[in-house]
Amino acid sequence: MPNDTVSMPNDTISVCYSGNKRVFPGLLLSVLSLAKFTARPLHVFVLTMDLHEVDPAFVPFSEEQIRILDGVLKEKNGQSSACRVDVSEPFRRELADGKNTKNFYTPYTLLRLYLDGLEGLPDKIIYLDIDTMCASDIGQLYDVDLGDAEYGAVLDYMGKFWINRHYCNAGVLLLNLKRIRQTKLFSRARDYVCTHKLVMPDQTALHRLCTRRIYLPRRFNEQRGLHKDTVVKHFCRGIRWLPFFHIYNYKQWERDKVHKKLKIFYFDDLYEKYDELAARYDLTK
Hints:
By secondary structure, the protein is an alpha/beta fold. It contains ten helices and eleven strands. A seven-stranded mixed beta sheet has the order 3-2-1-4-7-6-8, sandwiched between helices. Strands 5-9 form a two-stranded antiparallel ribbon. Strands 10-11 form a two-stranded antiparallel ribbon. Strand 10 and strand 11 form a beta hairpin. It is globular. The protein starts with 12 loop residues before the first strand and ends in a 5-residue tail after the last helix.
């Protein structure tokens, strides 16, 4: 996949997201949190695609949305930037007719498996799900030494009990792209999710096919409460047993639920910044 080579300062932190136009509020909030806590230059790659024939909502992020992200990043550090990478063509060619296009999770989660084929990327990059928020400097994660491991990840809060004690959550990944290209992990994972029906497709494929991973501390992908040492808070699904058993799934853009259900007020200044941007731009476009 061609992608213009990006010139980046040596201390730049590279971060990748994937998704569609509908989840831009979450992406904007996540990028606002990245910029708030990180002084170093950030380069944000946003993977997206057009798959409207599967779901009318599956349309790519717009160039205007990316310009808003770029402005947010440059407001903090003039050397930071954001760019959009359209992965429609390779996805349609390889995975559109696969077994996991229609799944509980959108097919956009699979786009991270194309990072090995993008030109202009550094050897190391952080992948973040859109339903994540930084609670402190993401550089703490980026500076972890991966050695010859393909990636670093945090154990999945529920999966480590119910699936496998080594099962990791793929919502936050520190990727060694150089090593991944050598082992062909992502290309093998694409083949695997194309031919195997899975509940959590690429997350499970990476678990089964990885040759070596590093297990990161929970603070890099906090899937429950927010703690003093949390670096990334992941607003993923969870289980509560009291006062009755139920599954919850509150996202950071669901502000009232974050306040009332999760009792998290740590990001309120970012909500105010989001409201300022919403007043300046029409974020519904």
